[in-house]
Write a structure and sequence with these properties.
This protein is an all-beta fold and 158 residues long. 3% of the residues lie in helices and 46% in strands. The strands form 3 sheets. Strands 1-2-3-10-5-8 form a 6-stranded antiparallel sheet. Strand 6 and strand 7 form a beta hairpin. It is globular and about 40 Å long.
Amino acid sequence: MKKVNLSDITWAEQRSPKGQFHLFRKQISEALGNPRDAGPSIGGHPFEVELARLPPGAVNFPFHSHAAQWEFYLVINGQGELRSGDSLTNVTAGDAFVCPPDEPHQLKNTGSEDLLYYVIANNPMADVVYYPDSKKWVVKPARKCLAGTEVDYYTNEE
Protein backbone atom coordinates (compact mmCIF):
# COMPACT_ATOMS: atom_id res chain seq x y z
CA MET A 1 0.00 0.00 0.00
CA LYS A 2 1.14 3.53 -0.77
CA LYS A 3 -0.20 6.60 1.04
CA VAL A 4 0.08 10.27 0.13
CA ASN A 5 -1.12 13.49 1.73
CA LEU A 6 -2.69 16.19 -0.45
CA SER A 7 -0.40 18.79 1.11
CA ASP A 8 2.58 16.92 -0.38
CA ILE A 9 1.20 17.01 -3.94
CA THR A 10 1.99 20.16 -5.90
CA TRP A 11 -0.60 21.96 -8.01
CA ALA A 12 0.10 21.50 -11.74
CA GLU A 13 -1.15 24.46 -13.78
CA GLN A 14 -2.71 24.01 -17.21
CA ARG A 15 -3.57 27.09 -19.26
CA SER A 16 -4.58 27.66 -22.88
CA PRO A 17 -2.62 30.23 -24.93
CA LYS A 18 -5.24 32.99 -24.46
CA GLY A 19 -6.14 31.94 -20.92
CA GLN A 20 -9.81 31.00 -21.38
CA PHE A 21 -9.11 27.45 -20.20
CA HIS A 22 -7.22 27.54 -16.93
CA LEU A 23 -7.04 25.08 -14.08
CA PHE A 24 -4.76 23.69 -11.42
CA ARG A 25 -4.66 19.96 -10.69
CA LYS A 26 -3.33 17.71 -7.96
CA GLN A 27 -2.83 14.36 -9.68
CA ILE A 28 -3.55 12.08 -6.73
CA SER A 29 -3.36 8.82 -8.70
CA GLU A 30 0.01 9.78 -10.15
CA ALA A 31 1.29 10.62 -6.65
CA LEU A 32 0.20 7.11 -5.62
CA GLY A 33 2.40 5.67 -8.37
CA ASN A 34 -0.03 5.30 -11.26
CA PRO A 35 1.55 6.47 -14.52
CA ARG A 36 -0.70 8.74 -16.58
CA ASP A 37 -3.06 6.77 -18.86
CA ALA A 38 -1.78 3.46 -17.45
CA GLY A 39 -4.91 1.39 -16.94
CA PRO A 40 -5.22 -1.93 -15.16
CA SER A 41 -4.38 -3.93 -18.28
CA ILE A 42 -0.79 -2.65 -18.07
CA GLY A 43 -0.42 -2.56 -14.29
CA GLY A 44 -2.13 0.74 -13.49
CA HIS A 45 -5.01 1.61 -11.21
CA PRO A 46 -8.61 0.98 -12.33
CA PHE A 47 -9.45 4.67 -11.84
CA GLU A 48 -7.86 8.15 -11.86
CA VAL A 49 -8.36 10.63 -9.02
CA GLU A 50 -7.51 14.32 -9.06
CA LEU A 51 -8.31 17.45 -7.13
CA ALA A 52 -8.96 20.37 -9.48
CA ARG A 53 -9.10 24.11 -8.85
CA LEU A 54 -10.65 26.60 -11.30
CA PRO A 55 -9.96 30.31 -10.76
CA PRO A 56 -12.93 32.72 -11.01
CA GLY A 57 -14.16 33.05 -14.61
CA ALA A 58 -12.07 30.13 -15.86
CA VAL A 59 -13.26 27.08 -17.81
CA ASN A 60 -11.66 23.68 -17.17
CA PHE A 61 -11.45 22.23 -20.69
CA PRO A 62 -12.98 22.72 -24.12
CA PHE A 63 -16.47 21.13 -24.35
CA HIS A 64 -15.82 17.42 -24.93
CA SER A 65 -17.11 13.87 -24.61
CA HIS A 66 -15.31 10.60 -24.04
CA ALA A 67 -16.07 7.43 -25.97
CA ALA A 68 -15.13 5.14 -23.08
CA GLN A 69 -14.40 7.14 -19.93
CA TRP A 70 -16.85 7.82 -17.09
CA GLU A 71 -16.20 10.80 -14.79
CA PHE A 72 -17.60 11.40 -11.30
CA TYR A 73 -17.36 14.96 -9.89
CA LEU A 74 -17.69 16.13 -6.27
CA VAL A 75 -17.71 19.92 -5.76
CA ILE A 76 -15.92 20.94 -2.55
CA ASN A 77 -15.91 24.75 -2.72
CA GLY A 78 -17.23 27.59 -4.85
CA GLN A 79 -19.87 27.74 -7.51
CA GLY A 80 -19.91 27.05 -11.19
CA GLU A 81 -21.85 26.07 -14.25
CA LEU A 82 -21.86 22.61 -15.78
CA ARG A 83 -22.42 22.56 -19.52
CA SER A 84 -23.63 19.06 -20.30
CA GLY A 85 -25.19 18.00 -23.56
CA ASP A 86 -27.59 20.84 -24.47
CA SER A 87 -28.10 22.11 -20.91
CA LEU A 88 -26.48 24.41 -18.34
CA THR A 89 -26.71 23.48 -14.65
CA ASN A 90 -25.51 25.50 -11.66
CA VAL A 91 -23.25 23.57 -9.28
CA THR A 92 -22.06 24.46 -5.79
CA ALA A 93 -20.23 22.93 -2.83
CA GLY A 94 -21.71 19.54 -1.96
CA ASP A 95 -23.00 18.79 -5.46
CA ALA A 96 -22.00 15.51 -7.11
CA PHE A 97 -22.62 14.45 -10.71
CA VAL A 98 -21.54 11.87 -13.27
CA CYS A 99 -20.58 12.46 -16.89
CA PRO A 100 -21.03 9.16 -18.78
CA PRO A 101 -19.37 8.30 -22.09
CA ASP A 102 -20.71 10.17 -25.14
CA GLU A 103 -22.11 13.05 -23.04
CA PRO A 104 -20.23 16.30 -23.78
CA HIS A 105 -19.34 18.27 -20.67
CA GLN A 106 -17.42 21.29 -19.40
CA LEU A 107 -17.17 23.25 -16.13
CA LYS A 108 -16.94 27.02 -15.70
CA ASN A 109 -16.29 28.92 -12.48
CA THR A 110 -19.08 31.52 -12.22
CA GLY A 111 -18.24 32.61 -8.67
CA SER A 112 -15.80 35.02 -7.06
CA GLU A 113 -13.67 32.33 -5.37
CA ASP A 114 -11.90 29.23 -6.63
CA LEU A 115 -14.11 26.32 -7.71
CA LEU A 116 -12.59 23.25 -6.08
CA TYR A 117 -13.70 19.74 -7.01
CA TYR A 118 -12.60 16.11 -7.14
CA VAL A 119 -12.77 14.07 -10.34
CA ILE A 120 -12.75 10.29 -10.23
CA ALA A 121 -12.64 8.63 -13.64
CA ASN A 122 -12.58 5.03 -14.66
CA ASN A 123 -9.34 4.32 -16.42
CA PRO A 124 -10.08 2.74 -19.81
CA MET A 125 -7.14 1.31 -21.70
CA ALA A 126 -7.96 3.58 -24.65
CA ASP A 127 -10.33 6.47 -25.25
CA VAL A 128 -11.33 8.83 -28.02
CA VAL A 129 -12.31 12.34 -26.92
CA TYR A 130 -14.53 14.39 -29.24
CA TYR A 131 -14.80 18.21 -29.16
CA PRO A 132 -18.16 19.16 -30.75
CA ASP A 133 -17.50 22.94 -30.77
CA SER A 134 -14.28 22.62 -32.76
CA LYS A 135 -14.92 19.29 -34.53
CA LYS A 136 -11.72 17.58 -33.45
CA TRP A 137 -10.67 14.41 -31.63
CA VAL A 138 -7.96 13.36 -29.20
CA VAL A 139 -6.89 9.73 -29.29
CA LYS A 140 -5.60 8.29 -26.02
CA PRO A 141 -3.20 7.01 -24.87
CA ALA A 142 -1.26 8.47 -27.81
CA ARG A 143 -2.59 11.98 -26.91
CA LYS A 144 -2.74 13.00 -30.57
CA CYS A 145 -5.17 15.82 -31.37
CA LEU A 146 -6.73 15.56 -34.83
CA ALA A 147 -9.03 17.67 -37.01
CA GLY A 148 -8.60 15.87 -40.32
CA THR A 149 -4.89 16.35 -39.67
CA GLU A 150 -3.07 16.67 -36.36
CA VAL A 151 -3.68 20.08 -34.72
CA ASP A 152 -2.78 21.84 -31.47
CA TYR A 153 -5.08 21.02 -28.54
CA TYR A 154 -6.54 24.56 -28.31
CA THR A 155 -7.08 25.03 -32.08
CA ASN A 156 -10.47 26.68 -32.80
CA GLU A 157 -11.28 27.02 -29.09
CA GLU A 158 -10.41 30.70 -28.46
